[in-house]
Inverse folding.
């Protein structure tokens, strides 16, 4: 009986006996074997009596995600006063094409008040941009007519960007990191740093299952705290010699 116990407990003789418990089993099921740091989640310093629920995005979530975009667009701060009268403008600009044309790679996290964060991704950024040029951008031009003014508000500048040539992902980024992602959450409701990590893990698993070799984030150079937030998730800034915009950086 001692020999039987030894074989059963050690796991050396049977390939289906793994160490690591449920989390170890989850890691083996998820096709992101190189992202171990996503699972290195320390115990919180302050124990919060709060639970989070992660699930795939569905079309009825759009207004909640658009609200998060507006509430976090000023480098993680509320941008409602920056864009008065345009509750959907920032959502349309930041994630509209992704949730419309690539919803299968979008995920949300909910707390007891509702949706408090999201990860919106695309498997192939160029394909998304091509589809967007055909259907999404023309719809935005119709929704937001261009207004000629001597002094342009931040909203006018965003609207003007819809009517000009659209920025394309540089080839040096696309060749190594063809998938793209955007992660945002409402800071007061997401105190636990493991929440965005788990959102990223959800999106990475879906992307990797469908053949993604690398993921990039496109950020405005002025969004310092947002850039730091991605660095904490394990992203690093890229050197992009073929970047045509001085205002955009890639991670």
């Amino acid at each position: 009986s001692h020999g039987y116990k030894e074989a059963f407990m050690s796991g050396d003789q049977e390939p289906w006996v793994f160490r690591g418990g449920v989390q170890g089993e989850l890691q083996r099921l998820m096709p992101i074997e190189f992202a171990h740091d996503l699972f290195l989640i320390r115990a919180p310093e302050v124990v919060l009596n709060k639970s989070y629920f992660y699930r795939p995005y569905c079309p009825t979530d759009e207004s909640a995600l658009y609200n998060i975009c507006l509430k976090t667009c000023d480098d993680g701060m509320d941008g409602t006063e920056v864009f008065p009268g345009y509750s959907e403008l920032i959502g349309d600009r930041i994630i509209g094409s992704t949730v419309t044309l690539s919803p299968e790679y979008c995920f949300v996290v909910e707390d007891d008040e509702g949706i408090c964060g999201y990860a919106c991704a695309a498997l192939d950024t160029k394909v998304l941009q091509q589809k967007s040029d055909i259907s999404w951008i023309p719809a935005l031009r119709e929704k937001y007519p261009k207004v000629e003014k001597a002094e342009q508000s931040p909203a006018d500048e965003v609207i003007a960007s819809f009517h000009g040539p659209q920025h394309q992902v540089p080839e040096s980024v696309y060749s190594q990191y063809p998938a793209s992602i955007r992660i945002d959450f409402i800071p007061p409701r997401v105190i636990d740093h493991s929440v965005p990590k788990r959102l990223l893990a959800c999106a990475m698993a879906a992307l990797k299952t469908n053949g993604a070799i690398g993921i990039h984030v496109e950020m405005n150079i002025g969004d310092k705290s947002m850039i730091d937030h991605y660095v904490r998730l394990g992203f690093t800034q890229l050197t992009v010699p073929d970047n045509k915009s001085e205002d955009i950086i890639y991670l």
The first helix runs from residue 2 to 10. The CA atoms of residues 23 and 39 lie 8 Å apart.
